[in-house]
Amino acid sequence: MTASAPDSTLPPPPAFQQLAESRAVALFLDFDGTLVEIAPGPDAIEVPADLSSRLEELGQRLDGRLALVSGRGLDNIADHVGDLAIARGGSHGAERVAADGTSLGSNPAPLAVSIVEEIQEVAAANGALFERKRFGAALHYRAAPETGPEIEAAARQIASANNLRAKSGKCVIELVHPGADKGSAVAAFMETDPFAGSLPIFIGDDVTDEDGFAQASRLGGFGIAVGDRPSQNAAYRINTVKEVYEWLKL
Ligand SMILES: O=P(O)(O)OC[C@H]1O[C@H](O[C@H]2O[C@H](CO)[C@@H](O)[C@H](O)[C@H]2O)[C@H](O)[C@@H](O)[C@@H]1O
């Protein structure tokens, strides 16, 4: 379903078990704000110690049709979650691997050093937190949200001068290569086994998850928005991270 206007009154989704029993479901899970609560900074998140094994068990229940799709790099996800034997897309889906770690598609180039330096200068000038990524970079302004507009404007300028894309999220703006978006990641996974032919469900909390919701919807499935952010493309809503775990019996 693609809604025409933001809808903060979306209904709760049908029971996950019923859905999964009625047909083959493919599940795409965002990380920050969906599986872990938003924290003051990228490294301040609290990850359940057994998240990796819980996700693997969920993946087994779905016969392997489970993927984590995050704005974080896969290296960063591994730092926080440990070894994870499920499919995963990092850097907004620009880097993708199957459950066994095999690469799916080729990785984009890292950002040029000169561009990284420009972004670092914006961070230093505005007191933002610079997050280096393998295939992009992020500027966080959660500590001083009032600096957001200036930081976003500077980041967008760098993006347009260098044929990059600027992605806004929760108190963050990120620079990525064109084509790095969660919708493309869903489409790419859905073309491969074991995802092909199943019903895609994308769960996420942030603006960057809208591409995932829209793509899931285009492929006959739907999106589930987490939290209270109005969503353009989700069909259902789950209110909290805790309720995501409950819905999935994770
Ligand atoms: O796609 P996601 O898995 O949701 O990742 C999106 C970004 O999440 C991280 O930033 C966000 O979470 C931080 C920790 O809670 C928070 O401090 C920050 O304000 C949020 O924007 C991560 O640092 C980024 O790299 C991800 O792209």
Structural class: alpha/beta
Largest sheet: 7 strands, mixed
CATH architectural group of the largest domain: 3-Layer(aba) Sandwich
**Strand percentage, roughly?**
15-25%
As a percent range, the share of helical residues equals 25-40%
List the domain count as a whole number.
Answer: 2
Q: Which whole number gives the mean pLDDT?
A: 94
Descriptive report:
It comes from Pontixanthobacter luteolus. By secondary structure, the protein is an alpha/beta fold. The protein folds into two domains: 16-107 and 180-248, Rossmann fold (3-Layer(aba) Sandwich); 113-176, Trehalose-6-phosphate phosphatase related protein, domain 2 (Alpha-Beta Plaits, 2-Layer Sandwich). The protein contains eight helices and eleven strands. The protein has helices at 16-22, 51-61, 74-81, 113-126, 148-161, 182-190, 210-218, 241-248; strands at 25-29, 66-69, 87-90, 95-97, 129-133, 136-140, 165-169, 172-176, 199-204, 222-226, 236-238. The strands form two sheets. The chain has a seven-stranded mixed sheet with strand order 4-3-2-1-9-10-11, with helices on both faces. It has a four-stranded antiparallel sheet with strand order 5-6-8-7, with helices on one face. Helix 6 (182-190) packs parallel to helix 7. It is globular and about 55 Å long. Mean pLDDT is 94; it is low at 1-6. The protein binds ligand L263DTV3. The ligand O=P(O)(O)OC[C@H]1O[C@H](O[C@H]2O[C@H](CO)[C@@H](O)[C@H](O)[C@H]2O)[C@H](O)[C@@H](O)[C@@H]1O binds next to strand 6 and strand 8.
